[in-house]
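Quick one, tokens below. Sequence please?
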């Protein structure tokens, strides 16, 4: 009997932890676009929590839009310099179309997001970068 109660409590804790995850559109109505200050956006929308879902929305490349992508950088130093040499591509130029590309914040570690298009110009000049450290959601009674 005690084991059943423990299993039920564990399942309830898992369900409540995942059901609290927020779906957050990066940049709000501006979406993921050149010239928008995403660092300010991240500060205004903090805190971000583990299991929150970031949605990167941008138009696929066409004759009237610039292509965008989403890279995850490994360090603060590479983020500050917009150095893409060791970056991980997490969403290519077409994945942000439609409902957007979803990135789940699974780990409690710094995340450094940038647009890697035009050799990093979108990151350096276009302000298409932000960092965050997801925190653990505290249990509420």
């Amino acid at each position: 009997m005690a084991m059943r109660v423990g299993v039920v409590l564990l399942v309830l804790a898992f369900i409540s932890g995942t059901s609290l995850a927020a779906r957050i559109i990066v940049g709000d109505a501006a979406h993921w676009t050149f010239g928008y200050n995403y660092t300010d956006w991240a500060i205004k929308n903090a805190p971000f929590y583990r299991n929150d879902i970031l949605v990167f929305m941008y138009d696929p490349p066409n004759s009237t839009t610039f292509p965008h992508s989403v890279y995850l950088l490994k360090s603060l130093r590479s983020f500050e310099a917009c150095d893409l040499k060791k970056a991980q591509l997490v969403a290519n130029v077409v994945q942000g179309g439609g409902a957007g590309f979803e990135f789940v914040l699974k780990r409690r570690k710094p995340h450094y997001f940038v647009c890697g298009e035009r050799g990093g110009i979108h990151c350096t000049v276009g302000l298409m970068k932000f960092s965050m450290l997801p925190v653990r959601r505290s249990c509420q009674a």
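The longest helix spans residues 2-19. Residues 32 and 58 are 5 Å apart (CA to CA).
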